[in-house]
Amino acid sequence: MSSERTPQRHKKEKLNLGVPLATVGLFVIASLGAFTRKQRDAIVERDDNKCQFPEHHKHKGGLQVHHIIPQRYSEQLGIDPDFPENGLTLCEDSHHKVHPDIKRAKQTYHQKKRVGESSFNEVFQERQEKIKNKEIYWDDSWDRKMSTTAVRNTQKKSKLGWLFPKKR
Where in the chain are the domains? Predict the structure, then answer.
């Protein structure tokens, strides 16, 4: 049995918004947005400044904070996506595994720009259409493992006094 994953294996899967994803049902509805700089820095610190992608790989690119439940999708669930257990530090290459559409947009950015189009706008329109149809627009193959890692890291560091900054 291969540990290799097929990208976008749940591409056409319809979502049931009545069922909470991971630990989402435990969190209070708050303002939607993005992690603040202090929150991103805190997550990177919590994750020991290392990529937390669950599969063995060569780390490529800088570290980024990934929303396990994506921001736009969180709006559909009616939750604030910016809680510590929803963020995880990933290297750029791993982040592209989860969001291959962004890698595609980066690859075609200059081509599209020359003809007055935006590869990123196309991706976000595709995502919005999928959200409207209650479809997953990311590769969710690793969501459960990443959620578990984020919860474990948060609990471990919280016992040592780590605090997640609040939004102002």
Answer: 32-92+142-156, 100-137
